[in-house]
Write a structure and sequence with these properties.
This protein is mainly alpha-helical. The protein is about 55% helix and about 10% strand. α1 crosses α3. The longest helix has 23 residues. The protein starts with a helix and ends with a helix.
Length: about 120
């Protein structure tokens, strides 16, 4: 590997770390750059270089064509998903035995119903 390429890869790795630091700092890019005496143009140029290097690595590993070319633009839209409605299942069967009321919900296991009915029968 030639020396220029190695130097470039080291610089890309350094900027990968710096970009991560910037993004996790909670600051705007301009503020972060100003505090470190880095021009925003330099930041964005290296951000593109890091992106390109990562994309090339992924393509080399997978031997696939890129999903999107640089000329294409991703489009995002907000999708609102309504919160699920919490409902209490209605009783399917209600049995009254004197002052005892039994309600069985949909999906109750037959053995459970049988056991409860035997217990009620023994009490009556």
């Amino acid at each position: 590997m030639e020396l220029q390429k190695v130097k470039h890869e080291l610089k890309v790795e350094e900027w990968r770390r710096l970009i991560y630091e910037c993004r996790t700092s909670g600051q705007t890019i301009c503020t972060w750059c100003k505090e470190r005496h880095i021009s925003p143009q330099t930041y964005y140029r290296w951000q593109r270089a890091v992106w390109d290097a990562g994309t090339q690595n992924l393509l080399a590993e997978s031997n696939q064509q890129p999903i999107m070319t640089r000329a294409e633009t991703a489009v995002f839209t907000e999708c609102r998903i309504p919160a699920p409605v919490q409902s209490v299942p209605a009783a399917v069967v209600t049995l009254h035995f004197g002052n005892v009321t039994l309600e069985f919900q949909n999906g109750v296991h037959s053995e459970t119903v049988e056991t409860i009915l035997r217990a009620v029968k023994a009490l009556c």
